[in-house]
Design goal:
Rossmann fold, 7-stranded mixed β-sheet, alpha/beta, 303 residues, globular
Length: 303
């Protein structure tokens, strides 16, 4: 069956839109920022039955089947805690805020997302026990193929160079003012919804996380981005150019680095994030993510 042309990813078409300067957003009216507990109000119930079953299996793995993996990761965290406490006093640690920002694009679905959620769970326990304020955020889009923003653009006659054309979905899994060592299961269960991962606009997600960090009164600020690839949103790339989101992420990271108030780190799952982040590490398999995340946090905290 032939699909309508607008459903075909930009990289598969012959069209090569002209590059047109600064990053723009066609509309922010359909963007959503939501607490994890309220994701159902955005995505609706899990349908059909196989999605509910997949969600239940992922939750069972998160809750029980990863015990050996969790033990190894907790031991790495315990060793890191000892080293950190030997170098920094409690006041310095209490004056530190850390944010974990998780890419929830479609390619993260399955094992990568499961281990990203479990890694964040271990990391929040590690950081909070050190006295560090921690926030956990996720980012994707509300729908595939642009959503309501793109539909508005079509109704307006498809003006040229519209900028970002999708509806962003930004999720708060743990707020910075939450003082519990662990937020427990409900928030991370939402991270495992099989209908959640879609597309990823990394530049705006980093800006969102940075703005939240900058509202903190802490002196030392860390932002770690977990991702498995470059920014992609087919609707935006088809209507602009293939490098549109890529360039914006590079510009955002460069601006944060020049400001110097936030230590920004990229952790790539199966890809090299050094093209974007000056400080970065590569995780060759999702199973290594927990230890690599703890290692990246340790290096940033004692830097």
């Amino acid at each position: 069956m032939d699909l309508p042309r607008f459903w075909i990813p930009a990289i598969l078409t012959k069209r090569k839109p002209k590059v047109d300067g600064a990053y723009r957003v066609f509309t922010r009216d359909n963007d959503v920022e939501v607490e994890a507990s309220q994701l159902g109000s955005v995505l609706g119930p899990l349908l059909p039955a196989d999605q509910r079953e997949a969600h239940d299996r992922a939750w069972q793995s998160f809750s029980g089947a990863l015990q050996g993996w969790r033990t190894d990761t907790h031991l790495r965290a315990l060793d890191a805690s000892t080293k950190i406490r030997s170098k920094l006093d409690p006041a310095e640690l209490a004056d530190t805020a850390a944010t974990l920002l998780v890419d929830q694009s479609g390619s993260m679905r399955g094992q990568s997302m499961l281990l990203a959620a479990a890694s964040c769970d271990v990391a929040q326990d590690f950081l909070s026990h050190l006295g560090i304020t921690v926030e956990i955020l996720g980012f994707t889009t509300v729908r595939w193929r642009g959503g309501k923003s793109r539909e508005r653009w079509l109704r307006m006659g498809q003006p040229r160079h519209p900028g970002r054309l999708c509806d962003l979905l930004h999720i708060v899994y743990r707020r910075a003012d939450d003082k519990r060592a662990s937020t427990g299961g409900p928030a991370f269960k939402q991270m495992l919804r099989p209908d959640l991962p879609k597309e990823n606009v990394d530049g705006e997600a980093v800006l969102w996380a940075v703005s939240r960090l900058r509202s903190s009164q802490k002196t030392r600020k860390l932002l770690v981005v977990l991702s498995d690839g470059a920014p992609v949103d087919d609707a935006t790339l088809a209507a602009n150019d293939l490098g549109y989101l890529d360039r914006h992420l590079q510009e955002v990271v460069r601006a944060v680095g020049e400001a110097g108030d936030i230590c920004l780190i990229g952790v790539g799952i199966g890809f090299d994030p050094s093209r974007y982040y000056a400080t970065s590490s590569i995780v060759t398999t999702p199973e290594d993510l927990g230890k690599s995340l703890i290692g990246a946090l340790e290096a940033a905290i004692v830097a």
